[in-house]
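**User:**
If convenient, please work through this fold.
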Amino acid sequence: MNMPVFSEAEHEIDKLMGLHPKGFDLSLSRIRRLLEALGNPHLRMPPVIHVAGTNGKGSVTAFCRAILEAGGLGVHVHTSPHLVRWHERYRLGRKGGRGELVDDVVFADALRRVAQANDGQAITVFEILTAVTFILFSEYPADVAIIEVGLGGRFDATNVIEHPAVSVVMPISLDHQSYLGDHVELIAAEKAGIMKRGCPVVIGHQEHEEARDVLIATAERLGCPMSVFGQDFLAYEEQGRLIYQDEFGLSDLPLPRLPGRHQYANAAAAIRAVKAAGFDVTEAMAEKAMTSVEWPGRLQRLVAGALMPHTPDGAEIWIDGGHNPGAGEVIAEAMAGFEERQPRPLYLITGMINTKDPVGYFHAFAGLAQEVFTVPIRGTDAALDPVALAQAASDAGLQASPMSSVAESLEAIRNRLAAGEAAPRILIGGSLYLVGNVLADNGTPPK
């Protein structure tokens, strides 16, 4: 058996794991102490687009990056979590071109400097990685930095940013209840914590009126110039095109490359956020962004790789890391849209971790999916047992079978197909950890 090959940076992260405090409270005190020891690099970054939300924050980050790069700007991007390698969290901007994932030597050097400044004190791995973000983004020149919140907002380690060019809050639903609260109003209040007095705010499409009200009230209290989806800007499909509209006018754009109707609102929030941050968005920039945007692991289609020999002939394979009921709803809607255009039997291959609501996730697929195959996940101690996950799918009204792997599930689907039956559509997801496993096993990690 081949042992995994770890990069220099991954060895550094492994050494830092032991500093992670047990049973800690979300707090900004540790990251502030560390940044002070590093000379406060977070105060020397380019203008920041700061993004929070339960769902959609990764997509809006990807759209913002695509728009800005289409204008020839250098764009730093911080996202979390990663799918296969830690390096995916940091994309360093390059003037006039596409940014690139951080080089291993550069990443490892930043990690060592952060570890030295921390001097062995208790600190979370995410706080270490956030300090690395600030070092990299302050030392490498770029026109703008897009920084995605890790968890919540108010006490997230990224929330030491004092004067964001714009704070963006995307759709809010129930997730991480043990940290953020068990009502959408409480979660909205935590996410709204990234808003800073007098700094622009963009509020993306909100399914829950209670969450929207909390976000608006917070922005008003802080005197933030505010743009709200459906009120100040909107987007919709018309004759196979995306129509974006705000008080500055109307844009007739190609439909986004990212599939699913939910991406229309995400694209609109990104256009508005880039404008609110003080950048011009030309029609040409927006057009190019809609056709060039990419976001690995989110309704991404697999067309080649090591898993293909296990796959039924002619099957469509999609992967998506959405893992809560809100994500289940938008992914199921996208699958229903695919079914409308080209009918195929839908099968799910699902793995989830024990902090999620599997029944709520599966409910969205009742009446849509033929069967669910539940699988284990590598790389986390929090993975739900496939037998328990299959029971959750059954409780949501779906036929479900536990399996030992994704490959075994693909072969089981192949064996289920009757002669002459249409090639299936297969959705692999329920966890970003599982999507990372799939990309690694398939030999197609994000670049």
